[in-house]
Amino acid sequence: MTDDSVWQPLHEALERWSDAGRVADFWLRDDDAVEPTPALDRLLDLTGHYDVPVTLAVVPAFTGEALAARLARAEHALVVVHGWAHENHAPENEKKQELGPHRPRVIVLDELARGLAVITQLHGGRAWPLLVPPWNRIDAGLIPDLGRLGFKALSVFGRPKPAPIRLINSNVDVMDWHGTRGCRDHVLLVQEIVVQLKRAFAGGDPVGLLTHHLVHDEAVWLFMQRLFEVTSRHGVRWLSSRAMPAQQSCISGG
Ligand SMILES: [Zn+2]
Q1: CATH of residue 134
Q2: Which of 25, 102, 160, 178 has the most beta carbons within 10 angstroms of its beta carbon?
Q3: Residue 41 lies in a domain
């Protein structure tokens, strides 16, 4: 399959939006940053080149001034809170969780408050009180307390469920975590974006691309570059997570 035919379905989907006089929204979340690295430089250069705002979910326990100094030169980067130490507290036979029900809630909430304080102190106006739970999992019983801690929004993966806080979910993950641990098949990724665009056209959530710059292989970088190229040609709007509208499905649930 040629590169052009891989991307043809996305061209067609975006033409549907422009024919209707509408602009599709996309946003990008990238997880696990703690310090400047060549991979982070590559991410910031690539997104900067295409004017794509990037929301970096940073692990508070292990980050510091060096990342803040690097991001001072990256106006399109926003910093949010990626749990506390990205540490798994679930037993081996369960999916990994840092913010699960395995520890007393007061300890978990205290870590989250510290995480928000660290990120805000290091990044000032570039910080935004959005919580990205490690492994995209959080005990539902903790969510009602996030607002009291100062969080304005929560971002996990997949279709939003009713929640007592603004949800800004990612929904297209480029990584093949259970197989090659490299990029997923480009054809499938384009297909997923097209499906998400159809939902968005009918009033659903925008396309939320999820990346992990520290583990990208060349196929991921190529996919991102081609996606930015195609979307910029179609005048798609890449939004900062701070500018994202609240997701429809989460408002009413209380
Ligand atoms: Zn993570």
Answers
A1: 3.20.20.370
A2: 160
A3: yes
